[in-house]
């Protein structure tokens, strides 16, 4: 049986079924908390724990899926290119918004970590949590954090962003697709961007731009801290 | 053949992104370098949207799916996170909302300032 679970097909098929179930539940309930990705992750974790399947076996297939993260992020260039006139026209608001957002993200993490008396390792692990996983891991390791905690924080942050994005746009009365897109990308990287793409083409493209800008700025801000 | 060509173009850009990311003095990951590189290649029209559209849109439409393995890997950190689960989740929640609001309002504020500046110039 363990050979069956270690087949790369197992991980891939499990992910596709779990994601299909997530999409179905999301459509049925229409609730933002029923995020398809969150449901899919939960289903896969429950299956792995129930059948005592080691993570390495699942990752035979999981790694094949994760391989597409780089081309998927690169493809954001296509959606940015389709909205390039918006980028040219709103260059300053986008750059300044992303920069302020990145600083506020790191500042608020710092403040809350101090408030909860978390140690330095936890602080440095959480500091870069709003940017895309590979950048966050590098920044965390460079500062002296624990990259595995950072990955967990990045994913949780991304899911929170994707889940809350539509409500936050209403709550804060954003009423502007560009501002909404930049905000989603700056606070919740590619995971939020996946949601932004569902909200609209402009939101998706702006969110994609924000991933790049906030990612690079976070590296620079972190270098100032080192 | 056409779809294989599209996959080839996107993956070639990623390969070039990996090379560039390796020689950069600061750590910018392959994914972000590849995104910037592909954007530049589209701008200078070496790559046309039709060269990558089908594969690119497939990836964009299913973006969330590709994050499942990264999310599942959280089970490795269960023990580490158990001790401070509450502050951990609270920090992820609260800072995401604060960051969203700060970014959205900054973008709108800068837009408003620019609009005023443009109108001011028109009045002169």
From TrEMBL, chain A:
The keyword Transmembrane applies. Its main location: membrane. It is found in: Membrane. Pfam families: LrgB (PF04172). The keyword Transmembrane applies. Keywords: Membrane, Transmembrane, Transmembrane helix. GO terms for cellular component: membrane. InterPro entries: CidB/LrgB (IPR007300). It is a multi-pass membrane protein. The chain crosses the membrane at residues 6-25, 37-55, 61-81, 93-117, 147-164, 171-192, 204-225. It comes from the Bacteria. This is LrgB family protein. It comes from Christensenella massiliensis.
Automatic annotation (TrEMBL), chain B:
Keywords: Cell membrane, Membrane, Transmembrane, Transmembrane helix. The keyword Transmembrane helix applies. The keyword Glycoprotein does not apply. It is found in: Cell membrane. It is a multi-pass membrane protein. InterPro entries: LrgA/CidA. The chain crosses the membrane at residues 26-46, 58-75, 87-107. GO terms for cellular component: plasma membrane. It comes from the Bacteria. This is CidA/LrgA family protein. It holds the Pfam family LrgA. It comes from Christensenella massiliensis.
């Amino acid at each position: 049986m363990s050979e069956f679970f270690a087949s790369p097909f197992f991980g891939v098929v499990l992910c596709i079924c779990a994601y299909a179930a997530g999409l179905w539940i999301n459509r049925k309930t229409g609730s933002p908390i029923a995020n398809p990705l969150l449901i899919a992750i939960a289903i896969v974790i429950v299956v792995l724990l129930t059948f005592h399947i080691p993570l390495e076996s699942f990752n035979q297939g999981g790694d094949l899926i994760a391989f597409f993260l780089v081309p998927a992020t690169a493809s954001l260039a296509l959606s940015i290119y389709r909205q390039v006139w918006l980028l040219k026209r709103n260059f300053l608001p986008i750059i300044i918004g992303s920069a302020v957002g990145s600083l506020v993200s790191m500042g608020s993490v710092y403040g809350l970590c101090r408030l909860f008396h978390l140690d330095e390792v936890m602080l440095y692990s959480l500091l870069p949590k709003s940017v895309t996983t590979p950048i966050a891991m590098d920044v965390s390791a460079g500062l002296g954090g624990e990259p595995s905690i950072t990955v967990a924080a990045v994913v949780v942050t991304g899911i929170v962003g994707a889940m809350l994005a539509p409500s936050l746009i209403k709550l804060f009365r954003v009423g502007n697709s560009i501002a909404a897109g930049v905000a989603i990308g700056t606070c919740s990287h590619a995971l939020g961007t996946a949601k932004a793409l569902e909200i609209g083409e402009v939101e998706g493209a702006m969110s994609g731009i924000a991933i790049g800008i906030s990612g690079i700025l976070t590296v620079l801000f972190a270098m100032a801290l080192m | 053949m056409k779809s294989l060509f599209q996959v080839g173009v996107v993956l070639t850009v990623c390969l070039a992104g990996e090379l560039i990311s390796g020689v950069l003095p600061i750590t910018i990951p392959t994914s972000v370098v590849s995104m910037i590189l592909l954007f530049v290649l589209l701008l200078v029209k070496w790559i046309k949207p039709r060269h990558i559209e089908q594969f690119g849109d497939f990836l964009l439409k299913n973006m969330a799916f590709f994050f499942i393995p990264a999310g599942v890997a959280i089970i490795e950190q269960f023990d580490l996170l158990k001790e401070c689960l509450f502050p951990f989740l609270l920090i992820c929640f609260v800072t995401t909302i604060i960051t969203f609001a700060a970014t959205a309002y900054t973008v709108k504020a800068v837009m408003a300032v620019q609009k005023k500046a443009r109108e001011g110039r028109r009045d002169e």
